[in-house]
Every structure is written in C-alpha cells, then in structure tokens.
Amino acid sequence: MLLFGPFRFDAERLVLYTGQSQQLLRPKVLQLLAYFLTHPNQVIKRETLLSALWQHGEYREAALTQSINELRQALGDNAQNPIYIRTLPQQGYQWICEVNAAKCAKKRAKQMGVAVSLAAVLLFAMANMDAIWPLSSNEQTQQKPALLILPLQNETGVEANAWWGYAIESELKVLLQNHYQLKPKSQAPELLELPKEQQPHTLALTLKPRQQRFILQISLNGRTTDVIVEQLGHNFSDIATRVLMALEVTSDHENKTAAPVKDLSDYYRGLQALNEYGPELAKSYFEAALVRVPEHLPSQLELAQVTWQQGDVAQAKARFDKITLGDAPDGLQARYHLYKGTFEKALGEFEAALNSAKLGLRAAQQSQQIELIASAYQLQADIYWHTLQWQDYTLAMNAAYALIGSRSFAYSEAQRSFYLANPPAAGPQEKNHLNLVQSKKVLSQAIDYYRQISANLELATSLFAYGQNYLVPVNEGEQSLLEALDIVADSGNEYVKVQVLTYLGFYYIQLHQGEKALYYLDQVKIHESFLPATEQLRLLKAMAWMDIGLVKNDQNALDNAKRQYHQLLEADYISPLTHANTQLMLAWIGLKQGELETAQTLTEQALLAYQRFKLADVAIYAEYTKMYIHLKRGQPERALALADSDNTEAHLMLFYTSAAAQMINNDALAAHSKAKLSALRNSDGLLQQLDEFTRLVGHTDKNIVDLLDAPYSVYCQSKWILE
C-alpha cells in the first residue's frame, strides 16, 4: 500500500482510497497514477506516457490530457499550484509528492527505495489490468477493428421501403458489436474524408428489386455478396444473421431457439420518419408500434422524446414516468436517461438533469457504445455550462473530444459562441477560435454528407450550427440559418424551431437590424415550462427594442426596452448570468440617455458578477464600458487603469486605450494600442475615428469623446470578425 498525502493506493488491485472511501476512477486514470508513483520526481515526457499507456487510438493526445485532468481533480490538485503533478512546459510532467509518507511535501521523496521496490508490482498489475478491472468502453473498443455501417441505399424505386434499412442496420449492430468498434453513423462525414488508409472498415448495404422479391447487396472490406429477401417483413434478425454468414464475419451462428417474432415495422418506419422528416410524422408511427407491441420500450422512449419536442410538457412527463426499464439492455437504459436528462435541462431542472446524465453515462459505459458515452459527457457539459461550473464543463467536453474528436465541439460550442445572449465558458480566445476553425470544417463535411443521404433533421442541425459559426461569412451564415428554419418548421420539432428562431433574432441584433430580429423573435411560441429558453427570449426581445432605440435614436423604443429589462430582473426565474447581462444592457441605455452615474453603478454590478463567475470573455464588455464612462467624464488616467495590455482581441478596449493615451499625450502607448488594433480584422472604421480624434485633441472645445464608438456599438465581440 502506497501512501501519499491523505491517499492510499493499493498497488496490487490498483485501487485509490481516501480514508476508508474508495475513489472511483477509470482504469486508464489509475494506470496513469501507477506510472507516476513508479517514477517519482522524474520528468516524464508526454510521448513516454502515450507510448506506455496509449499505444493505439485515434485521440491519444486528447485522452492523455483528459486523464491528467481527471487525476488532478480526484486528488484535489491544481495545475497552477501543484502538490502532486507538476506540468513542465515543453518538457512533460513530474510527480512531486513524497510517496510512502504520512504527509505530502513538495520535495524529493526520501524513501525512493520503497517506491521503486514496488515498481515491479505496479507494472505487473498494469500489464494484467483486464483481469483486475474491466477496461472502460473506450479502451475496450480500441482493441477491435473499427467499422462504419453506412445508410442503406434504397434502389427499389419505392421511397417507403427506406424504413427497412433502419431495421436491418439495428440488427447488424447487435450482431457486430462484440467483433468491431462500431463507429457512430453521425461520424461518417469526418471519417469518409480521411485518407483511405485511415478510414475504418465500411459495411455498405444496397436494396434492389429482383422480379417479385428483393436482393440485399452487402459490401465489406472489398468483399461483396447478395442475400435474397423474399419480402420486407419483420424477419430482420434472420436476414442479418444470413448477411454475416455470407460475409464470413463470425463463426458464431449456431442454431438457437428463435424468439417469437414481433412486428416492429412501425417502429423502424418511425425512426426513418424521425431522421428524414421530423417528430410530427414519426409520432404516429411510434404510436402505431405500441398498438402492436404495447411493451416495446424503444417505441415508448422515442414517443416520450418527440412529445416534449412538440411542446406537450405534461404528456412527456407522464410518458417518461410510465417507462419501466427493468432488465432493459444497457444501451436502451442509457438512451432513456439521456433523453430524460435533455428534457430536464430544457425545463431548467439542472440538478435532476445532471443526475440523469450521470446515470446515462454509467449505462452507456456498460453498453460500450461510443456515441452514447460521448452524448452523456456532452449532456453533462451542457448542464455544467448552464450552472457556470467551468472546470467540470471543461473536463466533460475533453472527455467527449477524446471519444469522438472535434465533432463534440461542432454543435455544443456553436451555440455557446454568441456571448451576451449565451456566453461561452471562460478560456483563452485562441482556444475558442481554434474550435470554431475545426468546427467549421466538420460541419461543412456534415452538411454535404446529410444532403447526399437525405437525412433532413441532421442536415438542419448541422446547418444551424454552421450558421452560428463566426468564421462563416455573413451571407453564407444567414442562408444556412434560414435553410435550417425551413426544414425544422415542417418537422414538428417545436423546440428546435424555437432555438433556430431565437438565434436568428440574435443574429440580426448583431447586425443592428432590430426590426428584423423582432420579426423572428415574435414567431417564437414556447411552453412556459421551458424556463431557460423563455428567459433567453425575453432578454433578446428587449435587446432588439434597445437596438432600434440606439440606432434610430428612438426614445419610445429605448423606454420599451428599459421596461422589459426591469420586468426580467423582477421575474421569478432569472439566472445569475442573465441578471448580469440585463444590468449591462440597462447601463448602455443609461449611457445613451446621458445618465452616467446610473450607467456606472449598473456596469460595476455586472462586472462583479462576471468576475465572480469567472467569465473573462464577457467581463471585457463591462471593462471597456467603464473605460468609456471615464473618457466621457474626462478621466483618461482612470480609463487607462482598466486597460488590459494582454488582450489583443477586444477591438473597443484597444480603441479606448489609444484614445485615452492621446488625451494624456502618451504617444508611445497610443501608437502601441493603435498598432494592435490595426492588426485585427474589420478595424478600419475605428482606426479612422482615431485619426480624427488625434487631429482634434487639444485644438477644440468640442466634446471629442462623441467621436468614439460607444460600447453598445457591438453586442458581440465576435461581430468584429463577421465579414
């Protein structure tokens, strides 16, 4: 037993204890801890850890980073002030805690001999980890060849026959999951863009007519075979088994007593309708499936999901409550908890949603389905983001990234990048920018792919996320959003329709087109139980009226916006973040109306909230608003005290810094800030204002600060990179 700090580590069983409590960690994290304990005080390169613990896998680098983060979190360690694991930039990691001592100290282990003497035991345990503790799902699947099952190509000439592809694909997944690492179908756009040698095996299915019957043509790894299908009934399991026998994929085809065949054709028709047309058509099929097979859990679950998406909250709750999982398969249990957790999140019931997400993750890991595991982590990330738990948010998103790569950011991060209406987690601007670069590429691939296979709902989701990406040109992004709206408007998915309409409102607010924003926001019809979405809608409507008032100098519009903001502040439900955003919006109205004292008080209150919640990106708005107030009062020194010399991305902060420096004749600082500003895209207009400002400083009594753009000239920092 190794001792370090308050922890005990069982070297034979690879179990970590705090007191008498066992720390539940993934096997790979425990292997990482064991490696550190056998190499105390040594500088260990990332390449060394990857070679020792992650010989294979697509996302080795991300998996190592995630495991380091999980280990630090379990130990209560801090990367900036480490007690256990020190990060050495450009070098690697170092275990700095004394091992086999009662207390931990930041010095070399005095009992190196004891620790090293246990190295053989630890390394043996690591080598035989499978016998001690089953591998996590991601680690198990990495040992199997990867397989992507492509959507069935329906060449029968009858569109209605496409449902059969969903059925046969479902049966094939069950038969193949023990032999392959099944890649999610939604990952196909990325995987098929990889070089040929990096692509997974692909199983392609084509259904063709042949006289009075059908031929199912199957292609796997260059081998092609045909299976005769007498009729498209519900004998899916039998046909799937014949497919694998024909391909000689596995020899496990001994005859077993066949279970009674149930007619699930309506269920699979529902899945096809859900994917290609949306919930409105799918709902009738799932209801029909339950008439035929009332106990069919997948149909019950899908019906509960589409019910709340259509806005029937009470009925959806009743359907979820009615479902009894019993001994349902792990994958189905995972879907239940994830569906329910997503519903609870939409209602603003974040504690219940997080519990559902954790239950979903546990079941997903047991099922060994990568897509489900990643979805569980992404749901957790969404909840942590809403509850402002940034460290947990980062860990959850890193876990999703380790499983499915950049696609985990493509949808989640897109909606988090419109700042004041839906601000992102605090973090380096460069990281957000890189995520958007990769997401743009991934989403573009997805859009092309989903167009080809006529997966309309997934196409709409991809178009929606693509339109929210700030690296997409304005005209292209606008068309993407409007196309997404056209698709979801006819799908019956009212909740997604609300999301698209709401974002379109914010999109036009960014472009200072308040009337157009209200056109879309006024179309939003949402059940009052969806508290977060309702709150966001109220904020955006007030912002649209504020924009009209600011752009057109319309006092009635400003008064309307101010009244709506105050009503929002008095609402029974308002998140801390929306509360702070509303205060800042009211401060901007105060600036427009010349109420500097009120504007300053509200700005300071908003800034304190942003700082408390560690929202560095959003805090910039309040910081440069305070700078502007000081400039209006003729206090350039106080404005400069707020300047952040490290921030090279905030246009207005650099703009105000240069102006304040000119007012006190600090030519060097003025030139330096102006140079930084000129390096940013879309800064020409601000640079022209600075030139005019320079010409007038000291030569006129005119209030030259009126020449400068006010803080409300932009509602989103990312607006500056819109083209």
UniProtKB/TrEMBL annotation:
GO terms for molecular function: DNA binding. The keyword rRNA-binding does not apply. GO terms for biological process: phosphorelay signal transduction system; regulation of DNA-templated transcription. CDD domains: trans_reg_C. PROSITE patterns: OMPR_PHOB. It comes from the Bacteria. Residues 1-97 bind DNA. Residues 1-97 form the OmpR/PhoB-type domain. Keywords: DNA-binding. This is OmpR/PhoB-type domain-containing protein. The lineage of its organism: Bacteria, Pseudomonadati, Pseudomonadota, Gammaproteobacteria, Alteromonadales.
